Amino acid sequence: METRIIEQFRNRISRNLNENIIPFWMTHAIDRQNGGFYGRITNDLRIEKNAPRGLILIGRILWTFSALYRYDKNESYLTVAQRAYQYLTDKFIDRKYGGAFWMITPQGEPTEDLKKIYGQAFAIYAFSEYYAATGEKAALEEALDIFHLIETYCHDSANLGYLEAANRDWSPTENLQLSAVDLNEKKSMNSHLHLLEALANLLRVSRDDLVRSRLREMIECHLDFIINPATNHLSLFFDEFWNRKSEVISFGHDIEASWLLCEAAEVLGEKATISKVQQTTLKMVAAVAAEGFTEKGALIMEKDAAGNLLRTGFDWWPQAEAVVGLLNAYEIGGNFDYIQRALRTWDFIEKYFVDNQYGEWFYEVSGEGVPNPNKYKVSEWKCPYHNVRTCLEVLRRTAKLII
Fold first, then answer.
1. For residue 388, which of 331, 302, 324, 304 has the smallest C-alpha distance?
2. Which residues of 356-384 are buried (b: 16+ CB within 10 A; e: fewer)?
3. Pair 335, 357: CB distance under 8 Å
């Protein structure tokens, strides 16, 4: 019974990946006039040719097609990965001060040159994945160069972790805000979560001792500071001393962190850390399962400390991360209810997020499942990362369950 359910799950995941998500990006996202990839595309495929291109978008495209090529040696995936690598290297890397620009014009001129650690993390993540896929040593060197820059200028040796941002020349900045909806605080969960995944990926391919040390520190920061032991939810913003500055609960980040912490601990390879992280993960997933899902299986966006909904709609990425986080919890604890929950969330994704007319997934749907026409299908934040990674994780993990 369980094997049949898992095999059907795999088939649905594979079909969506290969027939919906990948063709969209390979067909519609490539800018053959200016190079690279378009910065914004609407739900109905209208291209905003003058829209800026973001580091997160290009870094995630590079990671995605590198990961796809590593999983399935399809030369067409390698071609897109090479294009993204060249674009990221030529247009986003700051050859004067090092690191990567946050935003550029379609012609390749920087429009926002702050060195946001969140963005640097995705450059590390992308370059290290491209190296893993191709063996291109220059990509590994880029990843290590960026790591050493954030280590030199943003690491908080006194209090642990990293400060959120620096000016273009890596001097201190007061502008620490990642986006308009974020607080202007010295440290955030979001940047540290993505540094965690970036350093895990970098350690896989470099085996660098300092990277190993900082990955261990990232795990400890999550366990000691970021995860609230009273609630088993992540806290979102902090001052430099790790005092909490927000009581908002972000269920998508909770479930994403639950499995990324496990992955990081496994890459680190220390048994005591793996055990501690797995125990914490099960508590985190249990809290999300108890508080964060609708009856239809959709993962709620955010609540305040009193349990009030802060948003009534649903974004695509928490749904994707929920599928992996639930599957990971099943692998650790053996509770088949988590598989069934993952399937309910995938049902919701297929019913409301997957665009069977134009391809890919919608950014946001309402509580009634209606797509938001004002949210782009491609943008500086909407990228082929959460959903492709979910598909690859499910395919890898379920392959072990049906042997």
1. 324
2. eeebbbbbbbeeeeebeeebbbbbbebbb
3. no
**Alpha-helical regions (H) of 245-314:** 251-268, 271-291
Long-range contacts of 130-138 (CB under 8 A, 24+ apart): 130/62, 130/63, 130/66, 130/81, 130/85, 131/205, 132/66, 132/70, 132/201, 132/204, 132/205, 133/66, 133/67, 133/69, 133/70, 133/78, 133/81, 134/66, 134/69, 134/78, 134/81, 136/85, 138/89
| Residues composing the chain | 403
pLDDT value of residue 403:
62
Pairing of strands 110-112, 103-104: antiparallel
What pLDDT, on the 0 to 100 scale, is given for residue 401? 83
| pLDDT at res. 299 | 98
Angle among Cα 146, 392, 147 to the nearest 5 degrees reads 10
Helix-strand-coil split of the chain, %, nearest 5: 55, 10, 35
Dist CA 76 CA 82 (whole Å): 10
CA dist list (Å): 220 to 20, 138, 153, 258: 38, 31, 21, 14
Name the nearest CA neighbour of 389 among 316, 334, 301, 329: 316
* Contact in structure between 37 and 58 (CB atoms under 8 Å): yes
Using one digit for the tens of pLDDT, what is the confidence trace for 144-189? 999 999 999 999 999 999 999 999 999 999 999 999 889 999 999 9
Give the right CATH number for 1-113+373-403 from 2.30.42.60, 1.10.645.10, 3.30.2280.10, 1.50.10.10.
1.50.10.10
The H or E element that residue 58 is part of is helix 55-71
Whole-model pTM over 0.85 = yes
Measured torsion, CA atoms of residues 107, 109, 110, 111, in degrees rounded to the nearest 10? -70
Q: What is the C-alpha separation between 288 and 345, in angstroms, rounded?
A: 13
Query: Which residues of the chain carry a pLDDT beneath 70?
Result: 1, 403
Which residues are within 8 A (CB) of 55 and not within 5 positions of it... i.e. 6 or more apart? Answer: 92, 100, 101, 102, 103, 119, 122, 123
Give the three-class secondary structure for 235.
coil
Enter the tokens of residue 306.
Answer: 């009193």
In 10 A of CB 232, how many CB atoms? Answer: 20
